[in-house]
Design brief:
The complex is a heterotrimer of chains A (317), B (510) and C (293). With 317 residues, chain A is mostly helical. Helix content of chain A is 73%, strand content 1%. Chain A has a two-stranded antiparallel ribbon with strand order 1-2. The two termini of chain A are 17 Å apart. Chain C has 293 residues and is mainly α. The two termini of chain C are 17 Å apart. Chain C is flat and about 70 Å long. Chain C has helices at residues 7-39, 42-47, 60-66, 71-99, 108-120, 125-134, 152-163, 169-175, 180-191, 193-209, 212-217, 226-235, 239-245, 257-279, 286-292. The chains are: A mainly alpha (317), B alpha/beta (510), C mainly alpha (293). Chains in contact: A-B, A-C, B-C. Chains A and C meet through helix 1, helix 2, helix 3, helix 7 and helix 8 of A and helix 1, helix 4, helix 5, helix 6 and helix 7 of C.
Chain lengths: 317, 510, 293
Amino acid sequence: MNSSAVQQSAVTASNPSSSLMKRIIRNRYMYLMILPGLIYFIIFKYVPMWGLVISFQDYQPYKGILGSEWVGLKHFQRLFSEPEFWVIFKNTLVLFVFNILFYFPVPIILAVMLNEVSNAFFKRFVQTIIYIPHFISWVIIVSISFVMLTLDGGFINEMLQAMGFEKINFLMSPEWFHPMYIIQVIWREAGWGTIIYLAAMAAIDPGLYEAARMDGAGRFRQIWHITLPSIRSVIIVLLILRVGNVLDLSFEHVYLLLNSMNRNVAEILDTYVYTTGLKQGQFSYSTAVGFFKSFVGLALVMLSNRLAKKFGEEGVY
Amino acid sequence: MKQLSTRAKMATVICTAMLATTALAGCSSKDAGQANTGASGQDNGKLEPLAKITIMANLQAPEVPSDNVKKVLEEKTGTKIEFQWVPDGSYDEKFQAAFATGSLPQAAYIKNQTSFILLRDAMKNGQFWEIGPYLKDYPNLSKLNPDVLKNTAVDGKIYSLYQERPLTRQGLIYRKDWADKLGLQAPKTTDDIYNMLKKFKEADLAGGGKTIGLADRNDLVYGSFRTLSMWFGTPNGWGVENGSLVPDFMTKGYMDTMKFIKKLRDEGLINQDFPVTSKTDQTNLMYTGRAGMYIGSMPDSESMQDKTSKNVKEAQYDVVSAINGPDGKPATWALPGYGTLVVFPKSAVKSEKELKQILAFYDKFLDPAVADLLKYGIEGTNYTKQDGKIVPSTDNKLYEKDVKAYQSIALADTTNVTPAKYTIPVREKAEKLALEANKYGISDPTYSLDSKTYNEKGARLQDIIKDATYKFMTGNLDEKGFQAAIKKWQDDGGAKIIEEYNAAYKNAKK
Amino acid sequence: MVQDKNFGSRLFDAVNILLLALIAIAMFIPFLHVVMTSFATVEELTRKPFLLIPTEYSLKAYEYILSTSTIFRALGVSVGITVGGTAISMVLTALMAYGLTRRDLDGRKAINLMIVFTMLFNGGLIPTFIVVKAMGLIDSYMALILPTAINAFNLIIMRSFFQNLPDGLEESAKIDGCNDFGILFRIVIPLSMPAIATISLFYAVTYWNNFFSAIMYLNDADKWPIQVLLRQIVIMASGLAADTSGMGDDFVKPPEQTIKMAVIVVSTLPILIAYPFLQKYFAKGALVGSIKG
């Protein structure tokens, strides 16, 4: 499909206006395909976006958007002047970095490993097992962790004690929050995350591997030179989308892990919005915080998209 | 450039569409109020019953109930009822969305006290009918408890009917068989409590060094802390010192309670992980016979006795409500006395006459027959009577199918309700003690007061105190650190809350 | 495939399989706990909170769930919504994704950006509710499908898969006299089965798990899908619910752990059954073979 694009741009350069019409007519079916989706996005995504203006108001549900009082940037000022704002923002970013560094590569590695398995039965079996945890709610995962880690007779601490070590206060110490968080994320999501990569790998021409073997390439070199490049664009798209969700960490999960002892590292924007905004019905304020989050996300997406394009990738838009 | 203009065009389209929808959002009251158009009303007494009512309520049962109770209820009230059951977990969102779009039905339940506080503004703004002046015209509603009504007032006006709840049911549940073995009496003071826990631990009655004295959980309010703090002379949420309101954590009693629990934790007399223990894990410590004491709601003793007996045959529980404070008098924590509240949106209830009919409908909820119906279901099917008391059917699934959901719409809990007969004596005692404790219950003076700053950031500020409290009790903060947390609370807005509550308090006294 | 197994390659396979087996076990044990707990007796579970092999099995939890009177109707609703919704979503997504692959399409970048934008910004609950209400969808099953018909993430992934197809396919199809619709349905989709299977799975899981739309948009409890029912059974004990309820805390007795786990098993089962059917589309090299053939 690349070649046609190049040809087209050569043509359009000579006579822009008439060829625009021509292009549109030639692509009429493509527009027709896009149309239903476009209508969907306008009606269900863009029309409700009107609701974002309440972040500049003191919104009261019964007054409606038109009836509520306008307050300008008051809620944004409040957010930035909150004494804990920077701590919370930092915690959010740290958790995000943990996600990108320690979680993001795991499904890729797992998918590559699965892809190298030649026994179809074993491969499908492992695949099925590792994707199940995705369906277990955070509440259950956190409560299983509690049972294993508690000081009051938890399995892990009993074992540590039996081996002559001190008991470790996993659940209430700030240092253990990040490892606990990321292990739970990996456990629940890594298997599920392999699905997209496995689908991308299914499209690789086996002939490429054969050729590589002829050239005497070992397994690692095959992975490095064939498998990974073939799924590179998918990895990049997923990475950009993940970066866009930088501040959208699983609220429920963090909220369940959060307690009075680890709040200084575990309080993130989402949990903050929950206690300060939703629990107290501060619609405008929580919308303003959401707005801020989206804005940071947008900036990061645009930045990473530009970077991707610089390296010759397609990007997400 | 091209891209920009496309976007601009798109923006115009979107804006037009948005304007159309917001117009809809603003005029909220279009499609409601279809319910009743009877003949013009005369006196309250002569008003014909409402033809049909739609009620939105949160479903606090595992499933939507069968029609059995509803049919009887319709018969007794002469009104056709349509329920909009909303799952409990998403009730507030649904309520807000329905409220914002004017789609609330004639009667809508408010989930809890927190949700009620959020609606105060809307009430002041006239979104709901003020019902206070009408109550006197109804035989049952006129007898509602004025103290509880006061707790539900907004600027001194009543907008909602409340669901009765026992005021004082907090207490202490302990292993009587353990105490007997060690020759201990029921505790009367906090020293007795400490002593009992210590003895339990020393005697290691659970065996294997596994005994924990007190089982607590991650909740400073409904866990042990608040109930215990009352016994140290702490006020309930807010107290009056020298004629003005002070928050509980600035009082000596609060500090004493923290020190007490810290001591328990240091000496291993409480589960070490209590700041992160869930209710399920907490009760499991009791059920498995590892812990000997539980502080919380006394009616919990029933399930505790039942479940523990299955693991530890000889287990016997007893309840205590009256623990003497530092002044030598018993004290106990008093709740606001209401569960849910029901409000009547003006967008759905169109006329005063309709409101009166609805109130007449709800008045019947407090008639003895209807009160029993909503609490216990249908006689013969869901319960039988024995010595004038109610013996519920032991078929738990049947109870959940027929009755449980209606308990969340019932108004009566004790008034005009036939008492139940409990098979487990300790529960019977718990009920008795809960009633007696009404005399010395300590109420929160801010239940009906309003503070703008509290509404805005009270929950967030409370976290500062909560964190400091837990850190103190686990030994991560000293007294000075705790005072610093209080200072932070004050600086971040707490001082304003104190000011606003005191202003409201003086106003209300006038 | 060429069977050229030298020592290094064999060692690689051995280590790889061993590691995968260990990972599978690590992921399976907690799930085993969930399954076994659902079959355990309440008494045993109280004594052993982390239970892997119960000494006594019980079906009580399942009996309890299945005796909910509306459960089979709700199951039917869920299956209907999942199948219908996935079909609608896939058609809309595939069309739009393919439409956006053509690089010389005017406005393409704007539309792409507009899609990404919706992933970051959304108007919130109440404005969406107003739109759904204005369209007359309240109490209609369509309210569970239309507002979430296209997922921007899925759309972008699909587009990226389409874009990765080998060049030149389009040209040769055009020579054969296909128009754009023909190319999409006769060539692009058959060649993208792994992607179609993946995205269908994502949509199906989303529809299957969705409870919130049903709670918001359906007033009539008779129309509830199974997730609302199951969640209702579980919610009474969820950590979040206890914390937010404020006063109702001790009125709602937590359901037994066994029931909670049984609910997970019941709600995951249909997806577990469906997955192996999708797996055949992930077979390595399956589709490249089909191009050649």
